Amino acid sequence: MSVLRFDNVSKQYPGGHVALSDVSFDVEAGEMLFVTGHSGAGKSTLLKLIHLSERPSRGAVLFAERNLMKVRGRRVALHRRDVGVVFQDHRLLTDRSVFDNIALPLILRGMRRGEIGRRVRSVLEQLGLGERERALPTQLSAGEQQRIGIARAVVSEPRLLVADEPTGNLDPTLSAEIMALFASLPERGTSVLIASHDLGLVKRMKKRVLVLDHGVLADDISPEDLADE
Ligand code: ADP
Ligand code: ADP
């Protein structure tokens, strides 16, 4: 089944700047892929259309075969439960513990305390952060902070995780660790779409790559094509 479909999507920002031009692609459930391109190519815009921070000017974005154009008002929050988002600067609450940061999305949807505790601890274990639940984000290393950002995004068990330059602030070793973590998500049922301008890192992952060039989908490279290089 298709988890995400862009159907001839264009996005023109107020003021006339065209950020995406007639972009079409499909993501299958359980797939991991990258979107790359130079700065300003439209990567962030593409992700924003998926978590409904922006709306297309033309064309349709379908999520689990539902047209996001019809998702308005209260339903936007419901949709966002299905889409986990990881930012480059992780955006953790600095005055709340690691546990609270990860629990927040579950508290907001009214989950029972016991269930929240179980879920948060399970995610922390999986990410190798079991000892860290009482720490404040500022007491953690950059790599640990980014892992907390990922934990918060996956704790709701979203169908799709989107990440915008998630390794932008990390050194190559930590970047590789974070990428390995993303690569483990599809087998747990979460598809993964990562925007990155780090072409070297992207190629090493040997996953499908969408290449944006000035808002145009210039290439859609399969893992098999990358393996040939
Ligand atoms: P190679 O060095 O193996 O020839 P390239 O880096 O030239 O590979 O290109 C591989 C793919 O990545 C091509 O499809 C190309 O369009 C894309 N690409 C090349 N440079 C960039 C870039 N700066 N940003 C995004 N995509 C790029
Ligand atoms: P990338 O993530 O690849 O760097 P973006 O999606 O951020 O690209 O931006 C694509 C283009 O759209 C850029 O030219 C950028 O300046 C423009 N853009 C992005 N956001 C806005 C906005 N809110 N208003 C106007 N133009 C924007």
From TrEMBL:
Function: Part of the ABC transporter FtsEX involved in cellular division. Important for assembly or stability of the septal ring.
Residues of the ABC transporter domain: 4-229
NCBIfam families tied to this protein: FtsE (TIGR02673)
GO MF, one annotated term: ATP binding
Localisation per UniProt entry: Cell inner membrane; Cell membrane
Tagged with keyword Oxidoreductase: no
One Gene Ontology term from the biological process aspect of the record: cell division
PANTHER family: CELL DIVISION ATP-BINDING PROTEIN FTSE (PTHR24220:SF470), IMPORT ATP-BINDING PROTEIN (PTHR24220)
Protein name in the entry: Cell division ATP-binding protein FtsE
Membrane topology, record value: Peripheral membrane protein
TM ranges: none
Gene designation per UniProt: ftsE
UniProt-listed InterPro entries: AAA+_ATPase, ABC_transporter-like_ATP-bd, ABC_transporter-like_CS, ABC_transpr_LolD-like, Cell_div_FtsE, P-loop_NTPase
Gene3D superfamilies from the UniProt entry: P-loop containing nucleotide triphosphate hydrolases
